[in-house]
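Researcher: Please predict.
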Amino acid sequence: MITEGSIHYSALKKIFPFSSLDDESLKRITPFFEQVVFPAGATIISDGYPASDLFFILSGKVKLVYHHKKGDVNLGVLNSGDCFGEESLNPGSVYETRAVCQTRVTAIKIKGNKARALRDAYSDINIALSMMQKTFRLTCKEKLRWREETESVDLISRRHPFFLFLRILLTGGTTLLIFFILLFAALASEDFFIPLLVVSLIVFIVGGLLCFWAAMEWRNDYLILTNGRICVQKKLIGFYDSRHESPINAILSVGIDTSLTARMLGYGTVTVRTYTGDLQFKRLPYPYTILEFIENRRDIAQAQANQEERGVIREVITSSTGRTMDSSHKQSKDAQVFKDSHSYQSGSFSDFLARFFHLREEKENTVTYHTHWWILMRKTFIPSAFLLAIVVLVLLRLIGFIAAIPETVIYIGGLIMALIGWVWWFYQLQDWQNDVYILTDDQLIDVYRKPLGNEDRRSAPVRNIQTVEFERKGLISLLLNFGTVKIKIGNEELSFDNVYQPSQVQSEIYARYRFYQEKSKRSDQERFVEWIKTYDELRQEKDAFNREAKDDEKG
């Protein structure tokens, strides 16, 4: 580690939560910080050591790993503006994470006791740091299976706890009131003691289950911001499960709606507006702090994109043409080929059925999804029942029942009806197989084709994705884990209906979007290299022509 000493207050101006302070406040707190530099591969903090410092990254990339008893958990790769070492905000704590530099890192650090002093002195910083601590705890605790390996979580927030307490208070209070009334009536009655006692116990149990259900419903609703996207995740146990998300670069603006009561209690509705619609989260605590944080992360994401682009241009211009082409070739060679992690290999019975029915097929980086096997069962239920009825009818005739009908009529009629039933059954099977959703590196394709009928085929480019969301409605879809994935592209919307594991399909579509963006960026860089190479060749040709012209004049 190289300590570069004090910093200018303008460096803090770019970092949340200090960006909300005025210049005078920034000048007062700047002496609390010092700038440090770490080489690539250096370990900044390690789990088990006393948590003494809080770090904010100015430049570079840091991989953060959470140490868990069951194994280490990768928390993603942090970039400029990100914070780590939140454990130091609790006195006497030890680090639970390990931070390793992937590149040369420049950061500013502050002692934990000084950070706690700032938290006590400034209410805005207190709210922001508390929000960061909660995000860190939830990130370590919750399994966000849709998150990519390098994707770090910047913010996780639930609805304001006031509404949880209010709901439990109303539900629990009403339950207790009815319970005591029924219990008193049971004790006061000789004839209906047992029935009233049973009813009172049932009311008490149902009320307790409703309170538990309300708590679980509250804790499963999240607003999640990562370094690449923003998500609104909602889950109503037994009824509903959804996640709506949008890339950060698709955000147009962020707004807040509050009322007088909301401002008094400290909550509001945060609305993220994109090209195709809004992501809305109601009753969110500290809405103004969250709005400022989202805006800050959006500005940082844009600045990082511009910085990376300038870095490539600078490398191309300052390097020789040959070396630049080698670097570009190496970058292209080192780029990992996109691979999907959606393999249905968990060993569960649901995954076994998914493999058996080929609900997902991959060939040459093209993924084809079929609707869930439950839809096939539903489509073939009536023809299957029809065939079963024919078999039962024939068996009944064989054992002597329905003797009034001649055997010839039963057998010939049964054969004809069986043929009709099988044709009907295979028609439904073909109809199920013809409904496919195709995901390629650059295209989303929705195919709906009727056997011996019309075909409806819609496609859209991956690069134009604005929002991706999924939802599972109803008890059957929740139990069997299938639902609908909706992709908004401009004014159009594609929907992958009744697909298995819709959350994974959503993650896979988003991963394709990220992969396409990176691939496009590499293509642009390589194209720029070609421009520079062509310019260099033209300049060399011009210099050679000028030299020949001078030689002719001298001759």
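Model: The longest helix spans residues 502-554.
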